[in-house]
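[scheduler] slot 2 assigned
[scheduler] job type: sequence-to-structure, two independent chains
[scheduler] chain ordering preserved from manifest
[runner] begin chain α
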Amino acid sequence: MTKDLFDLTGKVALVTGGSRGLGRQMALAFAERGADVAVVSRKFDQCAATAREIEALGRRALPVACHVGRWAELDPMVEAVYAHFGSIDILVNNAGLSPLYPSLDQVTEELFDKVIAINLKGPFRLMAAVGRRMQEGAGGSIINISSTASQSPSPHAQPYGAAKAGLNALTSAFAHAYGPKVRVNCIMCGPFLTDISKAWDLEAFARRAERMALKRGGEPDEVIGAALYFASAASSFATGAVLAVDGGWLGTPE
């Protein structure tokens, strides 16, 4: 009764920020479970490299260069994916940006707008455009990738945290707007050791990690279980959920 719960055969997934880090891991995992995948990010060459990995698994792949923070690029990208595959069954809003800044009072309007655009405005538009077509068709699953910064004070990433808090709120709103045929859920990620972590103060992180329940950062492939759960029939009664995958980061005692 359970062997087919995570089967994605015949499904089409669109993964933003899909060429590296958590996005790449999810794109490859979906392909391994039978899905065809549109790999979307700003750099076409990186999308194409991940697409080749997917094709090596025997699935179809479409690399698409798109800046998620630029609304005008989103509808043409979605149309290209529908034209190529005929449907989108799984949408993963994974693309994100959290640039460093010296202090909150030195956050520029340009930086603030850029962070909001990629982490909140773009996902809003994609959920609206793709979710509507899912609702009118056979349904689907939308997965937002949030962050524990949305719930934890983060003075060095606060525009990012605010945007991700907004994404948490949109998850519930869109679940109600497009249910019952479309499920909308969110993975609230803690500290994963992707390329982004190279810019961290790793000594400070190690001290904090010692107080975490799992006492370490996450490896990129450790997001796969949650992603497959929300993408597949395994989560058929889950919508509007925000699932922390953070190694116990939010519960770390001071």
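[runner] end chain α
[runner] begin chain β
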Amino acid sequence: MIGSMLGPAVQHLNLWKKRLGRVPESIWAHTGLETLVLADNDLSEVPAQIGLLRNLRTLDLGHNALTQVPEALGDLSGLADFLYLHDNRLTSLPSSLAYLTRLRYLNISENPFEAFPECICSMARLIELRVSDTGLTSLPPSIARLSHLRELHLRNNKLTSLPDSIGELRDLRQIDLRGNPLTHLPVAIATLPRLEKLDLRWVTTLAVPPWFADLEANGCAIYR
């Protein structure tokens, strides 16, 4: 059935919620694919052949049962638009994902990560990063390498603070920290020139620092 959906030069393939159970072998022959949606298919693994799809710009593997993704995912050097890995069972990401230097949007929310995947900090073109509902306790100082980041979503984790290097993200517009047990925020946040929204709703452990007034005076909306 899947083979009949694939024309000789198909570029976009949406197999959302098809109850596949496994990735169809017929997909790997279509190396011209630019969009591949395999979300919500009870997938427990993704074969290394995914690395053959070098023209992919968007890949959606969300809402599955993946405990890992293959190193070959790092071969997708053309992946520039979206990578969805949310709502799986991932505890780490392979270091090869550091080669996805053109990627602009990454969602790894709703996975039980043991630590923030360091490879993400090499994705220098990221504009939006979603790492919500993972249980993270800290962010690495190397987060500062994401110099193009505009949106950072960290809702419902176990963060008590952020690294001072957050102040180096000069293009940052939104920080979502809802539902974290924060006890401290670095004053460097007050120096972010383009920050428009700091969301602290459901945070009950943070004393309001005096520099919040400076942020609000500069036009940043603080939700708390």
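[runner] end chain β
[qc] chain β: The chain has one domain: 2-223.
[scheduler] slot 2 released
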